[in-house]
Amino acid sequence: MVENSNILLPPGGQRILVVMAHPDDAEFLCGGTIARLTAQGCEVSYLLATRGQRGSDDPAMTPERLAVIREAEQRRAAEVLGVRQVLFLDYVDGDVEPSLQMRREIARLVRLLKPDVVFTFDPWQRYQVHPDHRAVGLCTLDALAASRNLMYYPEQFAETGGPHRVRQIYFFASDQPNHWVDISAVIDRKVEALLCHASQMRGRDAQAIRELVLQRGRPLGSEHGFTCAEAFHHLVMN
């Protein structure tokens, strides 16, 4: 099914959970879509596996300092986009694996937050070189399968109230997109959110970031009549 929409979600999709590996992943890959969702009244939460403590080439920087910097940057960017809350799992940047422990932790938060829709990495993206991206996408999908099942992690039920089923998943960074979102009207908000990630922007100003957003978004939107778009693979879980 190929989708092309100004309204991203199916009816009832009010609670959104975005699961990512590092600060700035969401802003780069789906920041415009998030801006549109919050403008429509959706409740968006972020869940990050790491604080991005290895995302620097500065020899004077330390992982400990960078983790504090990038967490603050992520919270500011989330505020710009209208995200309700930002949660971290405290894994180490670059060392994330699709483990049973991470699956359990994500399943717990899915049961607590009860999202209608989840956004995450497409774990089957070809030639994806960052292990954290592959691991987070795969582990999130596995956690969604577990979170709906009565026999998985029943020790969580006293806290979470029981299983929770998520039917709608949108994979970003996918080689096989089937859903495109027009972000032409919210480019400035995406740029503003990206500017919050100063440690990662390498001195780029707003104009340079805007050109980067358009460079990525124009090809995605051109075939669908959009000036600028973000693309996803939409999967319905039965």
From TrEMBL:
This is GlcNAc-PI de-N-acetylase. It comes from Thermogemmatispora tikiterensis. Gene3D superfamilies: LmbE-like (3.40.50.10320). InterPro entries: GlcNAc_PI_deacetylase-related, LmbE-like_dom_sf. PANTHER family: LMBE FAMILY PROTEIN (PTHR12993:SF28), N-ACETYLGLUCOSAMINYL-PHOSPHATIDYLINOSITOL DE-N-ACETYLASE-RELATED (PTHR12993). GO terms for molecular function: hydrolase activity, acting on carbon-nitrogen (but not peptide) bonds, in linear amides. It holds the Pfam family PIG-L.
